[in-house]
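The methods section describes the discrete structure representation at length, but only in general terms. What matters is that the chain and its backbone geometry are given together, residue for residue. For illustration, here is how one protein appears when written out as sequence plus structure tokens:
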Amino acid sequence: MLAVIEDPALPAGSLEAKAGVDSARAQSAAAEQEVARQERLVATGIGARKDLDEARAKQAAAAADLATAHAKLGLAGAQLARREIRAPRAGVVLHLQRKVGESVDGTAATPIAEIADITVLELHAQAPPAALRALRDGMTAMVRPLGFDEPIAGTVVRVAPAVDPASLLGVVRIALASSDGIKVGVAATGQVTTGTRPGLRIPADALRRSMVGEDEVVVCDGGTAHVRKVVIAQRAEQGVAIKEGLKPGEQVVIDHVLGLQDGQALVAADHKRAESGSAGTGSDDKARTAKGVTNK
């Protein structure tokens, strides 16, 4: 139960309805006794048939009055029960939108509280029409709430059939597989897998911009730096997908790529040193192999 509405007229109306039922029940009982008495008199030849008919008519009217009283009692009980505002389902109160003493009319225009079932959380994201065309219910997704280091698995449960005419964006609902530690209302970003394709992915740190604004990487081939222009297919949190300019198995410099010149000598750091984060300078820049992966 969320709240109780104070209305003195509701209890009074319920008591009045109960009294009406008691009165109608007594009148109905008296009418039944009168009918029985008139039937005995008619059977012995003392009473008149007309009096019996009148008694039966009064009995029918008393029965109708009793049914009406019961209906009024039921209506009064329903109105009295409406004093108690109950949540339609179990959950947690997020916001109280009315204070003690404020008026409500029982419609959506005067909401009392906002509740939510926090065991099942959804991300309500907005997407442009071009992205909505590729989205379908049931697609897998990864959601990263604000402040979380690791993404959370999710599933697309609803793609809006129309876009908002003002923003030209449509709502996409993604159900999260886990809600542990997530607060309702926190901002989050979602990534939906719409398809897969083979390709190359490198760390974002391996990219640099040329003097003319083109994307390029430094390839380590035979201990020598080779500056190479690349075409980016997609940028993501996991890395940068390369469409053109690299081949599987080639090594790319990931630290201190700025300032390296074409033909400069390089020494590839081992895997252990690459994980330690030690800085390399000059010809001791670390390199990493560009492996073939499946990009989203």
Observations:
- The chain is about 25% helix and 30% strand.
